[in-house]
Amino acid sequence: MRLFIAINFPVEIKESLQTLINELHDNSFSGTFSTVQNLHLTLAFLGECDGRETALVKSVLKRLEYESFSLTFGKTGRFRREEGDVRWIGVRKNEALARLQRDLTDRLREAGFRPDEREFRPHVTLGRRVNLRQGYSPQEPAPLTFDVISVELMKSERIQGKLTYTAVYNKNFATSKSEISKKSF
């Protein structure tokens, strides 16, 4: 099973991101655009995992103790590619997110996984192989803020030819320091 760990978004955030995707689509002559169901922020990509490895990842996630925190999307950008750009929306600098991703990566390494060594550049892919129409320049969206209350272990698979991401495990975070303190006893 092909797995990754991600932050999924509330419906309102997905709807706002869908509006950005629609605008890109309407102003492009080519591209493959993300579906609203698959929008997420990847924290760690694990690749193919068997049953034992899946159970091990779940045990790593069970031991994570974090408070919920706010996350804000802001600036859009692109990764230039010859066949068309990857268009994305980025996350404003956020120390809680950076700490969570580092901690998660460290724990996965300790458990024997080999997470990606590249620098963590938090973003949500809106489209791939996107070629914009001449003269169109995407406008910067209003900031989109939401509370991160959990992370999910996600399965990636093709169902009837369609890429589908499904949560196979959910780790909820405490919503305040007092909840973390209560769990410690």
Q: How would you summarize this macromolecular structure in one to three sentences?
A:
This protein is α+β, with helices and mostly antiparallel strands. The chain is 28% helix and 40% strand.
Indicate the low-confidence ranges by residue numbers: 177-185
Structural class by SSE content: alpha+beta
Largest sheet: 5 strands, antiparallel
For the terminal residues, how far apart are their CA atoms?
36 Å
How many β-strands, per DSSP? 9
The CATH topology corresponds to: Cyclic Phosphodiesterase, Chain: A
Q: Which descriptor suits the 3D outline?
A: globular
Helix-strand topology string: EHEEHEEHEEEEH
CATH superfamily: Cyclic phosphodiesterase
Total of DSSP H or I helical runs spanning 4+ residues: 4
User: How many domains would you count in the coordinates?
Assistant: 1
- What is the CATH architecture term? Alpha-Beta Complex
Major sheet: order of its strands?
2-6-5-4-7
Helix content: 25-40%
CATH class: Alpha Beta
Our estimate of the beta-strand percent is: 35-45%
Q: Averaged pLDDT, please?
A: 90
Radius of gyration: 17 Å
Describe what this molecule looks like in 3D.
The chain is α+β, with helices and mostly antiparallel strands and 185 residues long. Helix content is 28%, strand content 40%. It has helices at residues 11-26, 51-62, 95-110, 177-184, and strands at residues 2-7, 28-33, 41-48, 69-79, 85-91, 123-132, 144-148, 150-159, 162-172. The chain is globular. The N and C termini lie far apart (36 Å).
